[in-house]
Amino acid sequence: MTEPTRRFVLIAGSANLDFVVRASHVPAPGETVLGRELHTFPGGKGANQAIACARAGGAATRMLLALGEDAYAEPIERSLRDAGVELLIRRSREHATGTAFICVSDEGENAITVAPGANATLRGEDLPELNEVSHLLLQLESPLDAVEAWARRARAAGVRVVLNAAPAQALPASLLDCVDLLIVNEGELAAITGIADDCDAALARVGVANVVVTLGARGCRARIDGEYLQQPAFTVQALDTTAAGDTFCGTLVAALAAGTAFADALRRACAASALACTRLGAQTSVPAHNEVQALLHTADARAVVGGACAQTPSGQNAMI
């Protein structure tokens, strides 16, 4: 009997309704800031990454998520289905749909507080069959024991396991042992390794074969099977950085699932992330495939092999 074709990317993780308010700046501890308009957007790291993966093209996308039986669930479901994501929903009667409260500054920076709600009810046994799945993309807005169970099961099934280790926290070696590709930002990399001032030393310390660290306005850097790649950012005027990192993750995995070379996949992910920074909201900011293609054809920001982590340049660049 032949092995089933592995044609799906499966995202298992969080889905929230985001409440977004714009203000002159993100409040410091103890400070009250008078904001302006308030909008709601579908969000959550898992759902954002599923939208990005689906819109990137090249791989069919499924998502395992948990929602409450409330009005907040409906716009989340609609957004995912409209993007072409096949949904595997665990419905909770006891917990509300997850929510996030986001303040976005006039410079495009943000501060986010999440109330997990139904997201916290996901369990290891909720993962569906993996026969047609090539890549499993995970984050850390779901219970850690569930994330590790999913990764372990996927590794045993021959599925490529991708972990976006966000929000930042220390991770057990037993989880990292099941990961094929780790995606982090600088703060998350420091939380995992204890190294905060030398990204190459931190990349070398991570016990995962393939690691990508996003560097905000400096683009991203990767260690792939011992080789280092540097991808500069695409210059944009940032409006809102919410979901830029999620856009990067979903686009990168979609490209890899389609067989794209890693350097080219990094460039595509950085381009999509840059475009996401130019729009307000989470899933509403994720660009379509043709928009990314247009930027790739007009911009000059190609990956280079070797080098070292660059210093932050001046100018308005993508924040990922």
UniProtKB/TrEMBL annotation:
Activation/inhibition comment: Activated by a monovalent cation that binds near, but not in, the active site. The most likely occupant of the site in vivo is potassium. Ion binding induces a conformational change that may alter substrate affinity.
Catalytic residues as annotated in Swiss-Prot or TrEMBL: D246 (proton acceptor)
Cofactor dependence: Mg(2+)
Binding residues for substrate: N16, L17, D18, G44, K45, G46, A47, N48, E141, D246
InterPro entries: PfkB_dom, Ribo/fructo_kinase, Ribokinase, Ribokinase-like
Enzyme Commission number(s) of this protein: 2.7.1.15
Domain Carbohydrate kinase PfkB: from-to ranges: 8-288
Record keywords, A-Z: ATP-binding, Carbohydrate metabolism, Cytoplasm, Kinase, Magnesium, Metal-binding, Nucleotide-binding, Potassium, Transferase
Gene3D superfamilies on file: 3.40.1190.20
Chain sites annotated for binding ATP: N185, T214, L215, G216, A217, R218, G219, G245, D246
Pathway(s) where this gene product acts: Carbohydrate metabolism; D-ribose degradation; D-ribose 5-phosphate from beta-D-ribopyranose: step 2/2
Catalytically driven reaction(s): D-ribose + ATP = D-ribose 5-phosphate + ADP + H(+)
Note on cofactor: Requires a divalent cation, most likely magnesium in vivo, as an electrophilic catalyst to aid phosphoryl group transfer. It is the chelate of the metal and the nucleotide that is the actual substrate.
ATP-binding listed as a keyword: yes
Positions bound to K(+): D240, T242, A276, R279, G281, S285
Assigned protein family: Belongs to the carbohydrate kinase PfkB family. Ribokinase subfamily.
Protein function: Catalyzes the phosphorylation of ribose at O-5 in a reaction requiring ATP and magnesium. The resulting D-ribose-5-phosphate can then be used either for sythesis of nucleotides, histidine, and tryptophan, or as a component of the pentose phosphate pathway.
Subunit details: Homodimer.
Protein name (record): Ribokinase
